[in-house]
Design goal:
seven-stranded mixed beta sheet; Aspartate Aminotransferase, domain 2; alpha/beta; three-stranded antiparallel beta sheet; 359 residues; Aspartate Aminotransferase, domain 1
Length: 359
């Protein structure tokens, strides 16, 4: 199987299993960024070229995720996009959240005047969600496709059935721990909105993200955020601002969004199937080994499909031992979180297992 380590200098001399915290920068993206900075240094800014670049970035996102170019908003990160969305969502609605979901999802909802209910993420999470929807009758469900603490990936077939049985339930999801791990077609998905930061599995660095909207959201969400760049020109009326442009006030950082474009191009060249197959292979091998060592919760052991993220049982002493062996991961939720991207290898997994078995 192809070795991708040559594209990522940060992998030299360490076992990097920390993509759930931050993805790595590839040489192709770095070289592009370096050239852009050099050009800005020597020639200044060409605003016309900037606008052309932004059009190209939207086209790349459109093609990669099978979305509508007119319904893509470029945002600096998921948190900004969600807060902007929530300000445009009519208040007093009943919103379903998942307990222990990422703070950037739950906190903004809890800070506003919504009627909130929760579903548990332990046990069978899909059954918990269905029970919560039946009991509370929420109008909106906001959640992460992949849970940041456990790596639980909400089953897509279940979500399609949920949307079919509850077509008026808005599904607004965070794809930050999911997008970049497998092929994804937004238009064919059950989701009404998908937002993401792109510094993790999409390997695009910081300060860039995007939101994808279904066309129908223009009649259900009424964002108020605005600034120059939102309007077509200086003489435009604020009321004429298009839906997605409310998410893009002010000048956009072309270096950041261009990094997203270049990273998507790089991943396309490697092959979406190749990336997905590599991640699935490593994830399955990791789960089998972790189960054998008794390192996973019962919730994870009993799930048929899982993401590339695992939270294994381990205390601070084990975490420090992993660091001493140049294995990079994170302490999360009372355990140790590891993740496997396409640039990881079976040797990385074996190195981790060697240390775990020494306990």
């Amino acid at each position: 199987m192809q070795d991708f380590k040559k594209h990522f200098p940060a992998l030299q001399g360490r076992t990097y299993l920390n993509t759930p915290a931050s993805g790595l920068l590839s040489k192709p993206v770095y070289n592009w960024r370096k050239e852009q900075e050099k050009n800005f240094l020597e020639n200044g800014n060409d605003y016309g070229a900037t606008l052309e670049t932004l059009v190209a970035i939207r086209k790349k996102v459109t093609n990669f995720f099978r979305a509508s170019e007119e319904n893509i908003a470029l945002v600096p990160n998921f948190s900004f996009g969600l807060n902007t969305l929530l300000e445009g969502l009519p208040q007093k609605q009943k919103i379903l959240l998942l307990k222990d979901d990422y703070p950037s999802i739950n906190w903004p909802v809890q800070m506003r005047d919504f009627d909130i209910c929760f579903a548990e993420t332990t046990g069978n999470v899909e059954e918990n969600i269905e029970a919560a929807v039946t009991k509370h009758r929420p109008t909106v469900f906001i959640f992460s496709i992949v849970q940041w603490l456990s790596g639980v990936k909400i089953d897509f077939d279940f979500l399609k059935e949920l949307k079919a049985y509850h077509p008026d339930l808005l599904l607004i999801v965070d794809g930050t721990q999911y997008l970049g791990t497998e092929k994804f077609n937004f238009e064919d998905s059950p989701f009404d909105v998908v937002g993401t930061s792109t510094y993790k599995w999409l390997l695009s660095g910081y300060g860039n993200g995007f939101f994808l909207f279904k066309e129908s959201m223009k009649e259900k969400i009424f964002p108020k955020t605005i600034g120059f760049n939102s309007a077509a020109n200086f003489n435009s009326n604020p009321e004429e601002t298009s839906f997605v442009k409310h998410f893009e006030p002010g000048h956009l950082a072309v270096l950041n969004y261009g990094s997203l474009q270049q990273s998507l191009q790089f991943m396309e060249e490697l092959g979406a199937d190749t990336i997905q197959n590599k991640i699935e292979m490593l994830s399955k091998k990791a789960k089998s080994a972790f189960v054998e060592l008794g390192l996973l919760s019962e919730t994870i052991v009993n799930r048929e499909n899982h993401s590339a993220i695992y939270n294994i049982q381990g205390d601070d002493a084990l975490f420090q031992k992993l660091k001493k062996n140049n294995i990079i991961c994170s302490q999360r939720g009372g355990g140790i979180r590891v993740g496997f991207h396409f640039y990881n290898s079976e040797e990385d997994l074996e190195k981790l297992l060697e240390v775990l078995k020494e306990r």
